[in-house]
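fyi for ur records
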Amino acid sequence: MLNTIINRAQKGLFTLIAEIGVNYYDIADQRNISPMDAAILMIDEARASGVHAVKFQTYKAGSLAARNSPSYWDLSAEPTTSQYELFQKFDSFGEAEYAKLSQHCNDSGIEFLSTAFDFNSADYLNQYMGVYKISSSDLSNIPFIVHQANKGKPILLSTGASNADEIDMAVAEIRKVNQQPLVLLHCVLEYPTHSAHANLRKISSLKARYPDLIIGYSDHTMPDKTKEIIKTAYLLGAVVIEKHFTLDKTLKGNDHYHAMDAADAKDIVNRVNQVDVLCGSGDLSALETESSARLNARRSIVSAGIIKSGEAVTGELLTFKRPGSGISPTDISKLVGMHSKFNIADDTILQWDMFE
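which gave:
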């Protein structure tokens, strides 16, 4: 199994997860192919776009939601008013299908994972993925969190719709049984998330509160042309970014309308790479490319009149001018009091071998 997410995140490298979720069912209907073929197609499109991992959602409607569970999404985009009815449309895959998807990902060089929504799924997915993802909706489901933490693998924990004390509790319970890398994903549990509600400063708050953990961002905002939301999240310290993925953002229902497509994913990777180029290493040292400017734009000590042979140097005989190829102004206290070896003309860039 690949461990791309954690390996990259521990090095501080940007890591993009395409959450295919259950969007492949609608892609299958649209293209008149099987759900499996659609899922594999989406994996391949994500990988070709530079995505580092793909994530699915594993559940059965009956074990996830009661029959009278109300909706919590934008009904103008997804009109189904019952969680149970919606989830029942997309729960036909079982262990055999996820095993096949995991193998295809391994063969293709992209990491596979799937969010488990019940104990049975969490158990059988263990052999097919190297990291567990726990949904924001299960952040308070401590027994289920502990069950997954006991698998002894790294964990991605979304923190949508939660308060600090709830996050503290979930982290503490995980740490009682699991010391593997833990990634906290800032998330807003609003579908879609209005950009004004993105609250990206929470990323900084998570970094300050949990300095020993990896911080990321699970994004539910509508894709923006310049990818400012994801770039800002990255600059604030979210190295792992998860976003829903589709092949057609115009499809109705479920998670297509706020998802990225292949072009968006490629653009995100390219723009974040450009951010990395702009940010550089952060070393407090001059760049090699600044060497010419360092020499010629800085100042040297220059004679402010004729300095006679044997004359003691005083401050009145000195000024500071470009270029910086002579004695540095930082050394003026060393120069004052020395004696000229010979007559020095006015406006001369002074060098140490002129004095004794």
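Residues 288-354 form a domain with the Type Iii Antifreeze Protein Isoform Hplc 12 fold (CATH 3.90.1210.10). thats all i got for now
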